[in-house]
Design brief:
This protein has a seven-stranded parallel β-sheet, with helices on both faces. It has a two-stranded parallel ribbon with strand order 7-10. The chain has a two-stranded antiparallel sheet with strand order 8-9. The chain is 38% helix and 18% strand. Helix 1 links the parallel strand 1 and strand 2. The chain has one domain: NAD(P)-binding Rossmann-like Domain (Rossmann fold, 3-Layer(aba) Sandwich). By secondary structure, it is of the alpha/beta class. Helix 3 runs parallel beside helix 4 and helix 4 packs parallel to helix 5. It has six helices and eleven strands.
Length: 263
Amino acid sequence: MNHPNPLSIPSSTPSERIALVTGAGSGIGRAVALGLLADGFTVVLAGRRTEPLQALEQQAAAQGQAALAVPTDVTDPASVQALFDTIEGRFGRLDLLFNNAGVNAPAVPMDELPLDTWFSVINTNVTGVFLCARAAFGLMRRQAPQGGRIINNGSISAHTPRPFTAPYTASKHAVSGLTKALALDGRAYRIVASQIDIGNALTDLSERMTRGVLQANGTTAPEPMMDASHVAQAVRHIAAMPLEANVLHMTVMASAMPFVGRG
């Protein structure tokens, strides 16, 4: 994988805050990246698709903001290592990771779910989150001053499943366990971890929900949605907190969606 031109962004300074957003090319990741850029972070943009990352990098530069596109496959340990080698070599530190990259699976009965689909969801939503958290933990532990913040993108499915969503629901429950483990293990190193559980943020991938989603009672019904900018605002709130304080879990959802009382 080709690394970005090292002359495109100046080296990190002690006052510079460095953030990494995975899945930054679209949807929630893009909204969060834009919000962090507006807050003065230098934002590393990671994702599988090069073009949208580079477009966002160019948009940031046109606005006098600092972004760096690094195409990355979070399921590939070598790709994740290359991403963090770039971050450490360029900036020397990482202050914030928004662990956002994730995939879903078709809503089918469990016995009809191809095993390749199960492995794809688990590899991205669990192993990918772990690989990025692991690398961030190591860098935040080594750097001076020590410490940083990791925010994992969970889901309301980390609490309550939708029908026929075993892979996604299992993966998000695993993220909850990983978040708690990170929060505990990071205490000695000023590394704090949070999870933001999102419900019905409107993106290109979730737009179908406005036309109808399978409900627990077997009916199909459209669901209320919220703008992805509200998720970005929540992440920005957590990111702005000093490391002495944390929001361990936050749920941000469309107010009228069927979550409370689901089923």
